[in-house]
Amino acid sequence: MGSVPTQDPVTIVKDTVTAYMTSSDTPMVSVALYCDGQGQTLGFPSDSEVGPELVFGIGSVTKVFTATMLAYQCVGPQPQKKLTDPVVNYLPASVGANGQAIKSVLLGELATQTSSFPRDFAVEGKNTLFRDLPPTPDQIQWWTDWANDGPAGPDDECAGQCPGTCYQYSNWGFVTLGFAVADCNQTSGAGYNDLLQEYITGPLGMSRTRCQVPKEWLAQGYNKNNEPVYSVPGDLKSCGADMLTFIEASLGARSGVPQQLQEAITLTHQPQPWHGQLPAMGLAWQIPKQTPTWRTKNGATSQGGYSCFVGLVPSLTTGIAILTDKFGAGSGGPTALGVDILNQLVAAQTGTPAAHLDTVDLREEVDDVP
C-alpha cells in the first residue's frame, strides 16, 4: 500500500497538479481546496496567470447546482415540492394531460439518475433552459411521447425498466429536472438563472457563477487537438474563488449560510433510498464505496475544453474543486487528478495509506451536455 504521505495539503496539490499538467498537456488548472480548517485557491502554472476569479466551464457539475435548487424547494418552513412529486406536475400542462410513461417519473428519480430517461435527447434548442426560455415544441413532444419501451442500448440502458429501479446517467433527465425546478406552470416569470441567484449564488456571494459570462472573464478552452473552443450557455461557469465558497458551504465550514440553503445542501448529500441494485446516490452527488465516505461529481463541456471535478470528504471537512481548460487525452481528466489528490489528503489526515480509489468506482462519466 505504500507509506503514509507527510506533505502538507498545499504541497500535495502542487506536486500532483504539476505532474498532471505535464502528462496531460493541460495549459491551465484552477484549484479550490479546503483542508485542515483552511480554504485557499491555487492557480497553475501560476497564481498570476490563473487567478481565483478566472472563469471556466464546469460542465455537468451544473447538475449539483440544479439538485441543490430542487432541494431548496423541498425544505424550509413552507416546502414548494417533494422529491416524490411526479415531474409532470411542473412541466407544461399538455405533458401531464397526454403523456403516459412520464407520469410515473418522480423528481427524486431524475435527481438520482434513476428516471429511466436515455442519456441524451438530441434536438435543437437543448440549451433553452439555461437561456431562461420555455421548453421547445420538440421537447414537449418528447416528454409526451416517451414510452420507455426499449430496446435497451448503450445510451438507453434502462429502456423498459420502471423508473426508480435502474441507474442510467441522463443529461436530458437533468435538463428536464431544471425545467421542473423553474416550474413551467408558474406565472412569476422566474427562470433557472433567477432561481439560481435567489437560492444559491446570491446568498453565497458567488458572483461569477452563471450560465453566461463576459468573454473577458473566461479562460481560453482547448479541445484534445489543441484547437480553441468557446463557452456556450448550456452549463454553468465558475471560478476557483466561487467554488471554494461552495465547498465551504457544502462542508458546513462557512458562516452566514442561510438556514434553508444549508438544509438543502445537507439533503443533496443524503443517500436516497431508491429501489434496485443501484450505485449509492445523493441528489446529483455520487457516493462511491469508500471509507471515509466521499461525495463526488465531475463534468466536461460538449465542445471539449473545460472540465471540472468536485470531491468532498465530509467527515474530515475536506474538499477540492478542480477546473481545467482542457480535458487531457488519456489522462483521466480532472476526475483522476482530483481522486489522486483526495486519496493523498485522506491518507495524510488519517495516518493510513491512500486507498487509491479507482475512478471507475465512481460510476461517473465525462458528460457532454450538463
Which structural traits does this protein have?
alpha+beta; Beta-lactamase; 5-stranded antiparallel beta sheet
Question: What's a quick, concise take on this entry?
Answer:
The protein is α+β, with helices and mostly antiparallel strands. Helices cover 31% and strands 12% of the residues. It has helices at 9-24, 62-74, 93-98, 107-111, 137-145, 171-182, 192-204, 240-250, 259-269, 333-350, and strands at residues 29-35, 38-44, 55-57, 221-222, 228-229, 237-239, 295-300, 307-313, 318-324.
Round the Cα radius of gyration to an integer and report it: 20 Å
Q: How do the strands of the widest beta sheet line up side by side?
A: 2-1-9-8-7
Q: Give me the CATH fold name.
A: Beta-lactamase
User: Main β-sheet, in a few words?
Assistant: 5 strands, antiparallel
Shape, principal axes of CA atoms: globular
Low-confidence stretches: 363-370
Terminal Cα separation, in Å? 36 Å
**Helical fraction:** 25-40%
Q: What count of domains describes the coordinates?
A: 1
Q: So, CATH architecture? A: 3-Layer(aba) Sandwich
- Count the beta strands: 9
Overview of the molecule:
The chain is α+β, with helices and mostly antiparallel strands and 370 residues long. It has a single domain (9-362), classed as 3-Layer(aba) Sandwich (Beta-lactamase). Helix content is 31%, strand content 12%. It is built from 10 helices and 9 strands. It has helices at residues 9-24, 62-74, 93-98, 107-111, 137-145, 171-182, 192-204, 240-250, 259-269, 333-350; strands at 29-35, 38-44, 55-57, 221-222, 228-229, 237-239, 295-300, 307-313, 318-324. The strands form 3 sheets. Strands 2-1-9-8-7 form a 5-stranded antiparallel sheet, with helices on both faces. The protein has a two-stranded antiparallel sheet with strand order 3-6. A two-stranded antiparallel ribbon has the order 4-5. Strand 8 (307-313) and strand 9 form a beta hairpin. Helix 1 runs antiparallel to helix 10 (333-350). The longest helix has 18 residues, at 333-350.
